Amino acid sequence: MTSTFHNEVQLGEVHYRLSATTDSDESMVLDLLGSLGSGEVVADGRLRLPVEGGATIGKLLSRVLGAHTRLRSRPTRHANANQPWTEALDTALRTAWLTPTESDSPKLIRSLADDMERSPTAIRARLARVGCDPDVPGRELSAAGAVLLGGNSGAGQGKT
After folding, report:
1. Buried b vs exposed e over 113-139: b needs ≥16 C-beta within 10 Å?
2. What is the pTM of this model?
3. Spatial strand order in the sheet of 3-11
4. How many C-beta atoms surround the C-beta of residue 104 within 10 A?
5. Which helix (H) or strand (E) holds 45?
6. What gap in Å lies between CA 109 and CA 139, rounded to an integer?
7. Splitting the chain (160 residues) into consecutive groups of 10 residues, what average pLDDT does each group show?
8. I need a labelling partner for 50 at 20 to 30 A (CA). Which of 14, 22, 77, 151 fits?
9. What pLDDT, on the 0 to 100 scale, is given for residue 56?
10. Which of 42, 22, 24, 25 is nearest to 33 (CA)?
């Protein structure tokens, strides 16, 4: 006896329809169709599976597709990640940090990270290297703080 189950879902602009049809006691056919409102097909495929393995294979597909989705949805790396810092970038960072502002440290670090296309962690680490106190916008590191955080006490004097 043939039986069919249909399910549909809209994800963004794509309308997906999945049909599972048992054509005998031994096999099942899965048909997937994904289309845009214009009718353009963006996904389609067919799988023939043994009926008794349907639920197990469904779980397997769910795990694989879920893992793939998580990998694809990871945030993109910052454009300048792992790029060398230049003297000009160090000077720009130092100047921006030492310019009076109403922003607190985390907010200013995030803003500088966005502007320089680097991570907030990279900005915070580099601030100490250019002689700036990463906890207080507008303040230079003391000599003791520079030693503790690995920065230059006479920041801007050279790259580290």
Report:
1. beebebbbebbbebbbbbbbbbbebee
2. 0.49
3. 3-11, 14-22, 27-35, 41-50
4. 11
5. strand 41-50
6. 14
7. 86 89 83 92 90 82 79 73 94 96 94 95 94 93 76 47
8. 14
9. 85
10. 42
